[in-house]
Design a protein that fits this description.
With 178 residues, the chain is mainly alpha-helical. Helices cover 51% and strands 0% of the residues. The chain is elongated. Bound molecules: heme C (HEC). Heme C binds next to helix 4 and helix 5.
Length: 178
């Protein structure tokens, strides 16, 4: 029994030490020309999902899915997010090559709850191009920080991509006005 326990402890400690030693001496791959191993991707996804579930505050989205708010969300998305996350039609898609890839929301709307999406957008995702949007939008003329309202607005859009009212859907599929 004692040997079994010792063996188990050694195993539990040995794996992190082995990974650390591999990284320290340059044995882990860091290039972006090949896909990462499946275990690494699965681990990173799990760590991200679990962090969002544990750390994001469970706040209620204050922005209702009215036509006006959804239209505002389309504009915010096309101006700020589509450059990486892509546009709805492949013909006008502007998805860039990132590593890791930015999820293509127009084709695969996100399934996380609003409060987790808000948290991802506000605080970003480390080791990826998804920088933190906190304070990125500045203040209005009255000195009010616009960040929260804009993040919730774009989150409201992301959560309703499957059920947009016709006028918003048309705008969603329209070429960006620029
Ligand atoms: C510079 C490129 C870039 C821009 C601009 C950008 N993103 Fe991202 N975003 C990414 C990448 C890359 C990821 C994937 C990170 C990962 O692998 O977990 C990501 C991840 C996310 C996630 C988490 C997705 C999930 O399901 O795990 C959300 C939500 C998100 N972005 C929303 C937005 C919104 C909303 C905007 C605009 C306000 C935006 N992003 C702008 C690159 C970008």
């Amino acid at each position: 029994m004692r040997r079994f326990l010792l063996g188990m402890v050694a195993g539990v400690v040995a794996v992190p030490i082995a990974i650390f030693v591999c990284g320290w001496f340059g044995l882990l791959s860091t290039t972006a020309n090949v896909a990462a191993p499946a275990w690494e991707i699965a681990f990173a996804h799990r760590a991200l999902d679990a962090a969002a579930a544990r750390r994001a505050p469970r706040v209620t989205n204050p922005v209702a899915p009215t036509e006006a708010n959804l239209l505002a969300g389309v504009k915010l998305f096309k101006d700020g997010c589509a450059g990486c996350h892509g546009l709805p039609d492949a013909k006008i898609s502007t998805t860039v090559n990132l590593y890791p890839d930015a999820p293509y929301f127009a084709g695969y709307p996100p399934t996380e709850p609003d409060w987790q999406l808000y948290w991802f957008v506000k605080y970003g995702v480390r080791y990826s191009a998804m920088f933190a949007w906190d304070k990125q939008w500045g203040k209005d003329s009255a000195g009010r920080d616009l960040t929260d309202e804009r993040i919730w607005t774009v989150v409201t859009l992301l959560k309703h991509l499957d059920s947009l009212p016709p006028a918003v859907d048309t705008e969603w599929h329209a070429k960006p006005h620029r």
